[in-house]
# Entry
Amino acid sequence: MIKKFDLNIEKILEDWEIYHAVREIIANAIDEELLTKSEEIEIFKDDGNSWHIRDYGRGINSEHLTQKENDEKIKSAHTIGKFGIGLKDALATFDRKGVEVSIKSRHINMTLERTNKHGFADIVTLHANITPSSDKGFRGTEFILKNCPDREIEEAKGLFLRFSGEEILEETPIGQVLKKESETARIYINGVQVAQEDNFLFSYNITELNQTIKKALNRERTNVGRTAYTDRVKSILKKCQSETVARKLVDDLSRYDTGEQHDELTWTDIAVHACKLCNERSRVVFFTSEEVISSPNLVDRVQRDQYEVVVIPQNIKKKISGNADFSGNPIRDVGQFTRDWNESFKFSFVTEDQLKPGELRVYEQTDKILSLIGGKPGNVKDILISRTMRLDKETYYEVGGLWEPQEGRIVIRYDNLKDLGSYAGILLHEIAHARSGAIDCTRKFENELTDLLGIVIQQTIG
# Structure
């Protein structure tokens, strides 16, 4: 016995192609797989060139043709569609495009036919011809599509994450970050593509929908605007904890000065998040491009210490400077690296017997130089030579000399022994610190240094 069921399709989606309809059938099959935890769906072509799409769930019945929304799917966080609306749209598209459809389950067998609307002899509408199932033991639902071009099947499959081949780089509670497999990034919602992005670094699969996305999901579920999913993409990135994602973001951030960075890195909060994560997981030091150019010596030092130089824009440096990463560690920008270096610094002292003859001759002039200013100040106990020195906080170069009042010693960098002028200049500079107790660039220090120079001149030519 055949039961004719009027599908009551009032509005046909004229712009839908066959692959849109195939997409709906695949989406419904995947939903059933998820809801029933049954075997994976199958999509295959038979010897008669008909395509089959089959799930192994509970099986379609005539009630599915009357539903506009499915409570079970609405309550599920990870299903794709609302079984009923998309199904009827798909059936109408198949009919309009000349694809013959037959459906079978353990409940019913179904085909499509255009026939007169009940009570309206002059109106022809699309009906489903429903008969009792010929196989009561049949598992799931199977759609058989005749005259369906292979390219339409492949294009439909390409809209699903599970068939796309895109690698999941990181999974968060609200979505996944995917490795972009082509020039164009894809935005998926519960595994179905809804948009494309030309300048995104990653593709994304959003698995927890907010109200903005729910409102934006139109009947076609295509071309969803960026404003609908931007916040969700940001939230996914902020929940990422892997070094893989962080490094890709930070590497892309280094292209900021050329204007070639991807769109995610124009979001300041994402750039800052990536820097914090990278600082936590990797041995990196953040430089601006200006710092790289002005401080090549520090770049070399960072690399010698087996840190990687990561170039970031100035506006991001301002955001991260003085802040901590997610483990509470200070973020290593140039200033922090310098502080860390100086705090962990150790002198490498050179004894007189280790000096070369020329260096020794310069060093032996120490007492003569001091005699020009009335001798060594009483608070200076030692004058030492070191191969290593602390870094200047302004220039990031090793300082030429240091006055350490706690130890009562002056330490001069080894290479200043190359000539008497360099050594004497640094020595007098540090004596001025010892006598005045003042730091560089203060009036007190400058006055003391001026006085010393005057004394030296008076002793030598006066």
Q: What stands out?
A: The mean pLDDT is 89.
